Amino acid sequence: MRRDNGNVSTNAEANVQHPLTGFELKAVLRESARDKTIFLHGKVSSGSENCNDAVIILEKTPFQMDTVSSLLKNDPELKLQLKNDIYGVYHLSPSPELNEIKTTVICPASEKHIKKYLQQEVYVIHETEDDYKAITLPYIESQSFSIQWVYNILEKKAEAERIVYENPDPTNGFVLIPDFKWNQKQVEDLYLIAICHQRGIRSLRDLTVDHLPLLKNILEEGKEAILKRYSIHGNKLRIYLHYQPSYYHLHVHFTVLGHDAPGSSVERAHLLCDVIQNIESNPQYYKTRTLTFALREDEALLKKFKELRDI
Amino acid sequence: MRRDNGNVSTNAEANVQHPLTGFELKAVLRESARDKTIFLHGKVSSGSENCNDAVIILEKTPFQMDTVSSLLKNDPELKLQLKNDIYGVYHLSPSPELNEIKTTVICPASEKHIKKYLQQEVYVIHETEDDYKAITLPYIESQSFSIQWVYNILEKKAEAERIVYENPDPTNGFVLIPDFKWNQKQVEDLYLIAICHQRGIRSLRDLTVDHLPLLKNILEEGKEAILKRYSIHGNKLRIYLHYQPSYYHLHVHFTVLGHDAPGSSVERAHLLCDVIQNIESNPQYYKTRTLTFALREDEALLKKFKELRDI
């Protein structure tokens, strides 16, 4: 089926209209400088009159081992950008066939397609102890976001067969389970979550010396269980909490170093070993300190901060 | 001085030897399909006979808002990959000037440079106060990695015209300059470095209350300078130090949220606002605490830890 499509379209290329005929840029929906991708909303006249909105996704292609030499041989054209000591930076203009751009065209594109790729602005928030009490805590208590799915896991009403390890202690125990983002097919992007049995620990902000036994169980037993099941040693793991978390029942993330899992960056992740150390040296650490995190434009909590603080 | 270099190299491109003359690929050191980067070890005949090893870093450049339209107008050449319903995937061959490759040449490259870019296993290290004194500090003091290029910048012997902002105070001043990783063409991957004028502050470990004025200057003046020059507000910035840093002269990283810059993950980055807060609440914080970071297999510091500790 897939091959048929390919053939039909390939043969047809000559006679059918160019997919970008009359292209006109309407908006840049999203852009990733790291991934070298850009998501565009454009108009093309190749669609039928009333539906020529298009989403166009451009992605620079990865380098290929077998052609990379050809880029550099025979004194290619280089524009000098800067020179300092042994370091030189240039811009190289490669021949097109060695430097293609993957181009995905969605046409006609619906409002939904366009929204799906639209970027959200992100803001840094510095949440003081008072901000937490006045803004974040009331927001958490008011929000209707159900965590029934978490309780279902803890009560074995769902995903029971996915559980990798459990310490059943109601106060200091937890369940270790693969994260949905991980397909469990390769350990290169291993991602598990430890969910504590004890209820009512919303986040980092609630943690005190009382929780040290729980936190240490998660750290030590979690590493052991992952070594046993996946043969990945604890010294290869990034073990951390999120603040803000995506749901307010205490859980800990286990991912492998070398895979930069989403949410592992410094403005959201807090290493469990640091959390334990901070509480041991100052029992009030997470109650009193200013915590910094990022919020997206469309997040309800950001709206609350904007109402009550100068963001 | 730097400008002279620039002119010489630019004008001279015809007469001086091409930096890649006689290029010969020896090994692919590392490759990232996500980042569209590749790190090569090659030989070039442009260096002097006995030192023509080179590390060459190729990186596809991010898309630019102002030129992206030109890639798609006037029916560019497209090779169809697949067509299914409203989705079409093509390979586009752009004209070279619209699709440059950033090319960094390090020549002559030492064993150390080549190792630095070689793909390696990664290990988590928990460095106690004693580990720092017994292992890391002696390592730093023994290592020969030159930071002449840093002094060149501080003394305006190189890159003087790239300086975005300077506070010239020898104790509490710094220079703000775009990082090599940023081509300065779009703010989506904005990346600047603040390098302090004061010498001898190796890293986070050396920071005390004496450095609070310097750190606060970098935080506040850095944000102002970036707002003025690039119209990016401070609440869109991730401002952090690395531990371990890649060179032991105190510097601070400024990157934009939404762009997950390499080195911004929790096992390496420390938010400047947290560093200030930690020192204010405990002047001995960075001297005494256990700091966690990741080291690659071939890093000399890891070898030292393996010799003296159970990793």
Descriptive overview:
Two copies of one chain form a homodimer. Chain A starts with a helix and ends with a helix. The first copy, chain A, has helices at 2-12, 68-72, 111-116, 129-142, 148-154, 212-230, 272-281, 285-288, 300-308; strands spanning 24-32, 37-43, 53-60, 78-84, 87-92, 101-106, 122-127, 165-167, 174-178, 191-196, 237-242, 251-256, 269-271, 291-296. In chain A, a hairpin with an 8-residue loop joins β11 (237-242) and β12 (251-256). Chain A folds into two domains: 23-117, 2-Layer Sandwich (Phosphorylase Kinase, domain 1); 122-307, 2-Layer Sandwich (HIT family, subunit A), CATH 3.30.428. Residues 1-15 of chain A have low confidence and may be disordered. In chain A, the strands form four sheets. Chain A has a six-stranded antiparallel beta sheet. A four-stranded antiparallel beta sheet of chain A has the order 1-2-3-6. In chain A, strands 4-5 form a two-stranded antiparallel ribbon. Chain A has 311 residues and is of the alpha+beta class. In chain A, α4 packs across α9 and α6 runs antiparallel to α7 (272-281). Chain A is built from nine helices and 14 strands. At the A-B interface, α1, β1, β2, β3 and α2 of A face α1, β1, β2, β3 and α2 of B. β6 (101-106) of chain A pairs antiparallel with β5 of chain B. Chains A, B: Homodimer. Associates with components of the exosome multienzyme ribonuclease complex, such as EXOSC3 and EXOSC4. Interacts with NDOR1. Chains A, B: It comes from Xenopus laevis (African clawed frog). Chains A, B: GO terms for molecular function: 5'-(N(7)-methyl 5'-triphosphoguanosine)-[mRNA] diphosphatase activity; RNA 7-methylguanosine cap binding.
